[in-house]
Amino acid sequence: MPQPAPSAAPEVAASAAASAVQEAVPTAAADDDDDAVEAATEAAAPAAEQPRAASATSSDRSAAGGQGSAQPPSSSSDVEDEGAEPSGRGYSSSSEDEEADLAAVISRLKEVLSVSEEAEVQLAKPPLLPTFDLAGIAALIKAGAAKRIICMCGAGISVSAGIPDFRSPGTGLYHRLEEYGLPHPHAVFEIDFFRRNPRPFYTLAKELFPGTFLATPTHYFMRLLHDKGLLLRCFTQNIDSLEHQAGLPTEAVVAAHGNFDTARCIKCGMPHDVDYVREAVFKQEGNPCHCKKRSCNGLVKPDIVFFGESLPERFWERVPLDFSQADLLIVMGTSLVVNPFAGLIDYVGQHVPRVLINREKAGELTSVKRSLGYTRGFDWDPATNYRDALYLGDCDAGVRQLCQLLGWEEDLDALMAAGQAQFEQARAGGAAGAVEDAAVAAAGSSSTEAVLRATAEAAAGAAQAAEPAGEAAAEVKAETVAAKVAAQAAL
């Protein structure tokens, strides 16, 4: 008796399953959501179940006479009663049918999603690092194989500087703006809201303005890379300008979200000296800073990228030029969730080692994404990793360990000590200037007794402010302030 033709149901169902996955998965994966990817894959699973039912129906029809009857037996017992014998007549058991059908579905899925066994084997590349940790990165640098290093930085590198965060209840920067009745906290960084009500931003700017906080060991580590001729560029998400305070030149830094280093009028675009904005921020108690051009009188703000504004042109110019040249990527203190910055880790070549120094993993290529053919992100899977190192912990501790491995710890400490001395001297000068201004202004309309008191207080304040710069400097500064106060009082 002729054997029944094999059913095409598994192949059709496999295509249906593949189509279902194709439609469901890309959207979830594009959102960088592992749970969504898994859910999408599971959602397509019912299509994979179809070949089982289809295969069973086909077998039943064949057992009934191979005529494709429209009324197949209702159960396997009906087939057995008619004398059909699965063995020896071209039939397989139901479990074997299921396995064959499932294999067909998987094969079709891999074909549609371009994930073949050959491609998976090709992912196993020779390792670019001896170990996938800081020791491996140190070995690479010592060997002279990393001479064009790019650093990518986020808020985590500034934590130890003491910069207040935005969201902590009662102390966060957003909490301090509640009196202004913001529609939502982020409104302070929205350009349309700023045009209507700039006061909240200027109040916030006083908390963040450069000169208030000292750069961290991580910032000085990047300065050390620069001094040794190894830093190609620092790409930072931070607006605190601590990279420059640590001594990195402007050319070495790309501030993806802008910073306080420059300022301009949002109406006519005229650049303004940052000291002009600083004076407005600290002396006008949050009052708006206006354009110096009288015919304009627009609002002036630091070149921080607000919601509704484009990223700086320099960012778009430097990304393709720098990342194509990099031979090592160091990512520090960022969760890698804000695009386009987060996607930069994949702009370096496939031959470029990468390392994440962060409190937790970020930007990872998970097993779910990899199984679906995605290749973007850090790959710390021991089976496929060939270039990605990882250090989980505080950024400052991570860079210090790396400096120890490189024999640079003394260099780092020397840079930090010099930077701290310069920072304290600058603060002393600023504090003395503030005391001087207040004392001289008070002396302009005071009685003799008040003048004497102002003179003494100003001299003491100036001496205390200048103390970090040395006793001699403190005495000179105090005498200068006292003389100015006396002169003003004599008018």
From TrEMBL:
Residues 8-29, 38-77 have a biased composition (Low complexity). Its cofactor is Zn(2+). GO terms for cellular component: nucleus. Zn(2+) binds at C265, C268, C289, C296. Keywords: Metal-binding, NAD, Transferase, Zinc. The active site is at H257. It comes from the Eukaryota. InterPro entries: DHS-like_NAD/FAD-binding_dom (IPR029035), NAD-dep_sirtuin_deacylases (IPR050134), Sirtuin (IPR003000), Sirtuin_cat_small_dom_sf (IPR026591), Ssirtuin_cat_dom (IPR026590). Residues 1-98 are annotated as: Disordered. GO terms for molecular function: histone deacetylase activity, NAD-dependent; metal ion binding; NAD+ binding. The keyword Transport does not apply. Residues 127-409 form the Deacetylase sirtuin-type domain. The keyword Membrane does not apply. Gene3D superfamilies: SIR2/SIRT2 'Small Domain (3.30.1600.10), TPP-binding domain (3.40.50.1220). This is NAD-dependent deacetylase sirtuin-2.
